[in-house]
C-alpha cells in the first residue's frame, strides 16, 4: 500500500497512466456528511453507530475530539472540525481550547467567533486576534437574531445552524447579499431534519426554533467530490469506462452537480443500483463558462481538466477558494504555469483561460500546499503527458480520500516514490 499514516512532506510520487482506463472503484464516504452527522449524533446523545463513516483525516479528528475526555483539542488541518467544534464546544459546559496546524492558525475564524459571542458564548483568542487557537468557555447559549454576509464560508453558517435548536431563544440568521455554497447550507438543514429538527429558510432568512434532536440510525453516502477526479480521468483518457460505487442520483451533496457539468467535457453518467457508470460520449464544448459559487470544491478539477483538453473557460464564484487549505487560486496558477498554461485572475473570484501558453518545465513537480484537492486534481495530468507527472507530498490526500493512490493502482496507474 502506498498510503502511509505518518506524513513525509519530502516524498514525491511519479505517476504514469495506463493506455486504457477501466475500473470499478468504491468511493470514500462523504466527508461533508460525516462531519455534520457526527455533530448531530453528539447533540442527540445517540446510541446508534453511524454506518459508513468516512475514514479521512478530517473525520478522524472530529471522532477523536468528540470521544475525548480531555479539554484541549488539536484538529490539525481540518477546517470543518475547527468551525463545527468551535460552535459545539461553546454550548458544552466547561473550559476548552482548540488549535491546529500553522496553516489553520492563519485561517480566519473571527466572523464565527463574533457571531457566537453575540449569541451568548464566551470565546477568546489565545494568540492572534481573529484566528485560532481559541479558548472557549462553554455554557448555555441565549440565541436570538444575527445578520451575516451570505458570501462567508458556508461552514460558519452550518456551525451556527447545528447548535441553533439548543439555544434558549433559537436562532434567526439574516443572510445579506449573494449566498455562496448554498447547497452546503441546504445539506446541513436536510441532515438536521433527519435528526428531528426543522428549520425554515425563506428568502435570505433562516429561522430555527428551540427544539431537541432525536437519535436515529444513520448511513453516510459516498462522496461526490471524490468522484470528480474519476470524471476528470475519464475525460482525459481516450478509452475509459469507470464504475463508481456508492453514489446516488438523488444525493444530498451539492457536488453531485459534477455529473451534469462533465457532460460538457464528453462524459455521460448512467445510474445503476450500485452507483454510476462513466462513458465517453464524443461531445466536448470549446468554451466552458460556469459559476462555481455552489460547488467551490470542484473548481480545481475543472480548471486542470479544461486546460489539458484545450477547452477555454471563464469560471466565477471562486471567492471562497482563497481561504481554503491554501489559496487555491494562487496555487492553481503557480502549478499550471509549470505545465505551460497561463491563467488570468480577476479580483478574488474569477479565473479565465483563453489558450494562453508559456514554456513548460521539462520535469515539473506539482506542489500540493498541504491541500488534498491539489494532489488529486493534478494526479490525472499523468493521462495527458507521456512522461507522467510528479506530485509532491502525495499523502496529503488522507485529508478526504485516504485510498486515492491505492485506487489509482487498482485502475492500472504506475506509481513510484
UniProtKB/TrEMBL annotation:
Binding-site list for phosphoenolpyruvate: 31, 79, 107, 155, 328, 373, 399
InterPro entries documented for this protein: Enolpyruvate_Tfrase_dom (IPR001986), Enolpyruvate_Tfrase_sf (IPR036968), EPSP_synthase (IPR006264), EPSP_synthase_CS (IPR023193), RNA3'P_cycl/enolpyr_Trfase_a/b (IPR013792)
Pathway it works in: Metabolic intermediate biosynthesis; chorismate biosynthesis; chorismate from D-erythrose 4-phosphate and phosphoenolpyruvate: step 6/7
Residues annotated to bind 3-phosphoshikimate: 31-32, 36, 153-155, 181, 297, 324
A GO BP entry: chorismate biosynthetic process
CDD domains: EPSP_synthase (cd01556)
Location in or out of the cell: Cytoplasm
Function: Catalyzes the transfer of the enolpyruvyl moiety of phosphoenolpyruvate (PEP) to the 5-hydroxyl of shikimate-3-phosphate (S3P) to produce enolpyruvyl shikimate-3-phosphate and inorganic phosphate.
Family affiliation: Belongs to the EPSP synthase family.
Assembly and oligomerization: Monomer.
Protein name per UniProt: 3-phosphoshikimate 1-carboxyvinyltransferase
Organism: Parabacteroides chartae
Amino acid at each position: 500500500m502506498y498510503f502511509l499514516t505518518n506524513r513525509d512532506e519530502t516524498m514525491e510520487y511519479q505517476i504514469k497512466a495506463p493506455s486504457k482506463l477501466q475500473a470499478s472503484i468504491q468511493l470514500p464516504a462523504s466527508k461533508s456528511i460525516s462531519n455534520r452527522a457526527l455533530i448531530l449524533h453528539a447533540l442527540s446523545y445517540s446510541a446508534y453507530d453511524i454506518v459508513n463513516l468516512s475514514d479521512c483525516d478530517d473525520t478522524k479528528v472530529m471522532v477523536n475530539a468528540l470521544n475525548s475526555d480531555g479539554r484541549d483539542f488539536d484538529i490539525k488541518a481540518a477546517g470543518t472540525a475547527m468551525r463545527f467544534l468551535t460552535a459545539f464546544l461553546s454550548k458544552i459546559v466547561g473550559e476548552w481550547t482548540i488549535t491546529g496546524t500553522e496553516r489553520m492558525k492563519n485561517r480566519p475564524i473571527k466572523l464565527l467567533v463574533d457571531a457566537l459571542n453575540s449569541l451568548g458564548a464566551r470565546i477568546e483568542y489565545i494568540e492572534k486576534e481573529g484566528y485560532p487557537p481559541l479558548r472557549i468557555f462553554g455554557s448555555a447559549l441565549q440565541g436570538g437574531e444575527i445578520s451575516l454576509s451570505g458570501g462567508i464560508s458556508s461552514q460558519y453558517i452550518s456551525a451556527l445552524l447545528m447548535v441553533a435548536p439548543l439555544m434558549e431563544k433559537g436562532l434567526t440568521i439574516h443572510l445579506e447579499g449573494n449566498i455562496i455554497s448554498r447547497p452546503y447550507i441546504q445539506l446541513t438543514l436536510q441532515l438536521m431534519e433527519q435528526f428531528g429538527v426543522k428549520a425554515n429558510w425563506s428568502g435570505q432568512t433562516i429561522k430555527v426554533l428551540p427544539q431537541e434532536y432525536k437519535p436515529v440510525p444513520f448511513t453516510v453516502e459516498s462522496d461526490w467530490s471524490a468522484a470528480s477526479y474519476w470524471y476528470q480521468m475519464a475525460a482525459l483518457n481516450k478509452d475509459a469506462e469507470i464504475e463508481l460505487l456508492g453514489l446516488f442520483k438523488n444525493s444530498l451533496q451539492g457536488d453531485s452537480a459534477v455529473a451534469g457539468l462533465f457532460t460538457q467535457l464528453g462524459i455521460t453518467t448512467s445510474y445503476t443500483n450500485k452507483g454510476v457508470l462513466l462513458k465517453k460520449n464524443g461531445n466536448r464544448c470549446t468554451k466552458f463558462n460556469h459559476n462555481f459559487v455552489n460547488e467551490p470544491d470542484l473548481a480545481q478539477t475543472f480548471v486542470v481538466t479544461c486546460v489539458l483538453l484545450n477547452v477555454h473557460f471563464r469560471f466565477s464564484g471562486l471567492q471562497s477558494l482563497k481561504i481554503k487549505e491554501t489559496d487555491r487560486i494562487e496555487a492553481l496558477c503557480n502549478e499550471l504555469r509549470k505545465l505551460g498554461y497561463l491563467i488570468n485572475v480577476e479580483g478574488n473570484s474569477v479565473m479565465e483561460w483563453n489558450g494562453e501558453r508559456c514554456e513548460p518545465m521539462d520535469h515539473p513537480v506539482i506542489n500540493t500546499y498541504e491541500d488534498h484537492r491539489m494532489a488529486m486534481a493534478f494526479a490525472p495530468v499523468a493521462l495527458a503527458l507521456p512522461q507522467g507527472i510528479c506530485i509532491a507530498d502525495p499523502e496529503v490526500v488522507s485529508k478526504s480520500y485516504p485510498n486515492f493512490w491505492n485506487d489509482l493502482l487498482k485502475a492500472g496507474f504506475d506509481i513510484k516514490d
